[in-house]
Design brief:
Ribbon_hlx_hlx; CopG-like ribbon-helix-helix domain-containing protein
Length: 54
C-alpha cells in the first residue's frame, strides 16, 4: 500500500550523489535512508533555533 505521507524529490549532481552513496555505505544504509536522517536532523536543529527566545 502506497504511503500517504508527503514526498520530496531532489536532483543532485553526479559527484554529489557519488559522495552520498559512499557516505551511506560507510553508515551501512542506502542513500535514501541517509538523506532522511540528514533532513530530520536539520529540521530538528532549525526548530530548536526557532524556539529560542531572542
Amino acid at each position: 500500500m502506497p504511503s500517504k505521507k508527503p514526498q520530496v524529490s531532489i536532483r543532485l549532481d553526479d559527484d554529489e550523489f557519488a559522495f552520498l552513496e559512499q557516505w551511506a555505505e560507510r553508515e551501512f544504509m542506502n542513500p535514501t535512508q541517509l538523506v532522511k536522517i540528514i533532513v530530520r536532523r536539520t529540521i530538528a536543529e532549525e526548530k530548536a533555533k526557532a524556539q529560542k527566545p531572542k
